[in-house]
Write a structure and sequence with these properties.
The complex is a heterodimer of chains A (597) and B (161).
Chain A: H1 2-20, H2 29-32, H3 38-52, E1 70-73, H4 75-93, H5 97-106, H6 111-120, H7 122-129, E2 145-146, E3 153-154, E4 159-160, E5 168-169, H8 170-183, H9 203-209, H10 212-228, E6 233-235, E7 244-247, E8 255-257, E9 263-265, H11 278-299, E10 302-304, E11 311-313, E12 320-322, E13 330-332, H12 366-416, H13 425-449, H14 456-488, H15 496-523, H16 537-540, E14 573-574, E15 581-582
Antiparallel strand pairs in A: 1-7, 2-3, 4-5, 6-7, 8-9, 10-11, 12-13, 14-15
Helix pairs in contact in A: 1-12, 4-5, 4-6, 6-7, 11-12, 12-13, 13-14, 13-15, 14-15
Chain B: H1 14-29, E1 35-37, E2 45-51, E3 62-68, E4 79-82, H2 113-125, H3 136-142
Antiparallel strand pairs in B: 1-2, 2-3, 3-4
Classes of the chains: A mainly alpha (597), B alpha+beta (161).
The complex binds zinc ion (7 copies).
């Protein structure tokens, strides 16, 4: 057990190194970045910066990260596209559509590859895919022909052949084609039965000779091939969803959201995971499955109340727990600390996202020290995993609440508050935001786990941002979950409802902004924080890393993120309050909104 | 064109037995060189004698092929194995199973018993050494409870031999 854990401690080190060693594990970006040279990227960043400081602009995050570079395809769209591609190739090469379809299948539905190959060496391509220009077998001009499978003689009208001329009767063709179709998608590449021939069996022949059921299966395979063999398309991985996604080159954002509301990463088809990269996600998932036995207890939805020790069931999405009467102790699900120690109420800094390894120094002998390290490594993982998992289940809960809201509560609320449902959109918007934020927050714990232990400045800054995100979202979630409750059970319109609207809509927009900025800051690898103090080009080109948490200027005391001082160029200034390095043109801190001193 | 093992035990379909009758007649008129088949009353299983071609490692040696036809022959491939003792050959296992693509994935209903026999003889004739496949022991052990070679996922040896 101990030695396993030690391995684990070592793994963490090496994984961290991987994480920072570059983009090698990432997707083949080159395929996608043709349109984006460095200049473009810089321009984009600068644009984002300018937007950024427009006060309170909701949509300030318009940038490369939100551009739409994908399309969701329903079955009819898929068929349309497939037909378009086929007829385009048929027109350009002056061949029948069924021949164009065969060519496209051989070239993974890439229209320009088909055209290129064809014009480079038409004969070779024809031989390769089995499109013969003239028969290789001349049927004798007889009254009867012998089928090459059943060896029976038939009148010519009962015989059919592919472009090669090899004669088979209708019934043998039917059996041949049917066997192939029932064998799988290989039927799309079916050739003449003659072992030495190779002439393609095209879709016209399938339609003429196969049973209705087999034709349907063939059609299914054809559609599947169009999506699965094409490098630009994939099926939505959500269970039961039949839509496909077409992803276009350009941009660095792989997140795709389907009409079925599932979001996933185009590159690795895991659930959407910005701001962490695909490599980190797969490491994290692997780690979780390796540790799943140890971690089962975390997934249990019950913990003892830290005060009265009775088990408390977590049945709400936010982390603020209240024990049942008479105890009524309010505590934090994540750290089991008193809720009164949390958040702005005390001006305290939200810190239950932080992992403080027990730092007892000195008097260990070597074995005890190693045992302690091993224990810490599991403890450390447990810390991150628990928070990752809690946000995951909060997200599930929020999704269910959102659904409940849309299907049940909206109508009733519209009724009691005498407001049209269109006026209540702010509630669904809040819930959608919560769902998205829980997703982001969840992944920041995987991010934190792989953040190098020795990069202290980065780590502290990260934990500061994450803490702000956690507490901001907590406020939003609590407002949407608990404060709304009053109005749901109300008999008639309440005066306070408009105040509630202002508050919830405000929280939604502030939280949205903060999270969008958080995502970008983390995707940039927090490169504003440079512990060496070297003003690298990286640091200057990524000024967009920031979050604006409005209405929080009252927060002052408590632990502050101390980011080590860095060389600033003439224009940059460091925030008094949070030490964030701001661009020269900013009059207030992009991170905490503190006025420039 | 794979098939399930059970189909080989079912009786021949009408199409299959018509076709086999025709193959039988053709065989009797025009037997492939190097093969002997004495007609029995079991159309569904043919036992064929193979005589090693002169000038090859198997010259003057005689082996026996057992050919079983499935219900939906020729849409499904026949099962072809060497009877004991099987020739020593880099693509023939000691239990008689033959690693030859046309007997499995590359089967086509336009092939016949006769064309399969000719392919097998040519495979024997081109052998450079009398030896078993490298994985013989493992494979034969895995087949012990009577598995048909048609259930094997064949990974075909290079076709130089
Ligand atoms: Zn042909
Ligand atoms: Zn026929
Ligand atoms: Zn979907
Ligand atoms: Zn991914
Ligand atoms: Zn309690
Ligand atoms: Zn806490
Ligand atoms: Zn600041």
């Amino acid at each position: 057990m101990d030695s396993d854990d030690m391995h684990d401690a070592n793994d963490v080190e090496s994984l961290d190194d991987d994480f920072y060693s570059g983009e090698t594990e990432d997707a083949p970006m080159d395929d996608y970045s043709d349109d984006y040279d460095d200049d473009n990227n810089n321009n984009n960043n600068n644009d984002a910066d300018d937007d950024y400081f427009d006060d309170g602009a909701d949509d300030s995050a318009q940038s490369r990260s939100t551009e739409i570079n994908f399309a969701i395809l329903k079955e009819s769209d898929i068929r349309d596209r497939q037909e378009d591609d086929i007829s385009s190739v048929a027109t350009v090469l002056s061949i029948p559509p069924v021949a164009a379809s065969i060519l496209l299948r051989h070239y993974n539905w890439n229209v320009s590859n088909v055209n290129d190959a064809w014009f480079a060496d038409e004969d070779r391509v024809r031989r390769k895919v089995g499109l013969l220009e003239k028969p290789v077998y001349e049927n004798p001009d007889a009254k009867e022909l012998t089928c090459g499978i059943c060896f029976e003689a038939y009148r010519p009208s009962k015989i059919h052949n592919a472009s090669c001329g090899h004669p088979y009767c209708f019934s043998c063709w039917g059996g041949y084609i049917g066997t192939s179709i029932n064998d799988g998608p290989g039927c799309l590449m079916l050739r003449c039965p003659d072992p030495a021939c190779g002439a393609a069996v095209d879709q016209d022949m399938i339609n003429l000779l196969a049973s209705a059921e087999d034709k349907q299966k063939y059609d299914r395979y054809l559609i599947r091939s169009y999506i699965e063999d094409n490098k630009k398309t994939k099926w939505c991985p959500a269970p039961g969803c039949e839509h496909a996604v077409n992803f276009d080159a350009g941009g660095e954002n792989y997140d795709v959201s389907c009409l079925c509301s599932y979001s996933f990463c185009w590159n690795c088809t895991e659930e959407a995971h910005r701001p962490v990269d695909c490599g980190t996600v797969s490491k994290w998932i692997l780690k979780n499955s390796a540790e799943s036995e140890n971690m089962n207890w975390i997934l249990a939805n019950s913990k003892p109340c830290p005060k009265c020790k009775r088990p408390i069931e977590k049945n709400q999405g936010c982390m603020h727990m209240t024990c049942t009467p008479p105890c009524k102790f309010e505590f934090c699900w994540l750290c089991l600390g008193a809720w009164s120690d949390h958040g702005e109420r005390t001006g305290g800094f939200y810190a239950c996202n932080r992992y403080e390894a027990a730092k007892q120094e000195g008097v260990y002998d070597e074995t005890e020290k190693r045992r302690e390290m091993a224990k810490n490594s599991l403890e450390r993982y447990t810390h991150y995993y628990e928070r990752w998992a809690s946000n995951q289940s909060s997200r599930q809960k929020a999704l269910a609440d959102l659904h409940q809201m849309q299907t049940v509560h909206m109508e009733k609320l519209s009724d009691t508050q005498c407001q049209p449902e269109s006026q209540l959109k702010f509630i669904t918007e809040a819930w959608l935001q919560i769902v998205e934020c829980r997703r982001v927050l969840k992944w920041t714990y995987a991010y934190g786990y792989y953040l190098a232990e020795h990069e202290h400045a980065k780590k502290q800054f990260f934990e500061y941002l994450q803490g702000e995100a956690e507490s901001g979202l907590e406020r939003l979630h609590q407002c949407a979950e608990k404060e709304l409750q009053v109005f749901l059970s109300a008999e008639g319109p309440s005066k306070e409802f408009n105040d509630f609207r202002t508050k919830l809509a405000g929280l939604t927009s502030v939280t949205k902004n903060f999270f969008e900025n958080l995502v970008r800051a983390l995707e940039n690898g927090l490169c504003d924080v440079d512990s060496n103090g070297a003003a690298t080009s990286k640091a200057t080109s990524s000024k967009n890393a920031a979050g604006s948490s409005k209405g929080k200027s009252g927060r002052g005391k408590g632990t502050k993120a101390t980011v080590s001082s860095r060389l600033t160029d003439d224009n940059e200034w460091s925030c008094e309050q949070c030490t964030y390095a701001n661009v020269g043109s900013a009059t207030a801190c992009a991170m905490c909104n503190q006025e420039r001193q | 064109m794979t098939s399930s093992s059970t189909s080989s035990r079912k009786n021949l379909s009408k199409i299959a037995s018509n076709r086999l009758q025709k193959e039988l007649v053709e065989w009797q008129i025009n037997p492939p060189a190097g093969f002997n088949y004495k007609v029995s009353d079991n159309l569904q299983r043919w036992v064929i004698e193979v005589i090693g071609a002169p000038g090859t490692l198997y010259a003057n040696e005689t082996y026996k092929l057992q050919v079983d036809f499935p219900e939906h022959y020729p849409m499904e491939a026949p099962q072809v194995i060497f009877m004991n003792p099987a020739p020593m050959h880099p693509h023939i296992y000691s239990n008689g199973h033959i690693c030859l693509d046309i007997l499995y994935d590359s089967w086509s209903p336009a092939m016949t018993v006769s064309s399969v026999c000719i392919s097998i003889l040519s495979m024997l004739s081109s052998s450079p050494a009398k030896q078993r496949p490298e994985d013989n022991d493992r494979y034969v052990k895995n087949c012990r409870n009577g598995r048909s070679p048609k259930e094997t996922r064949w990974w075909f040896h290079d076709d130089k031999v």
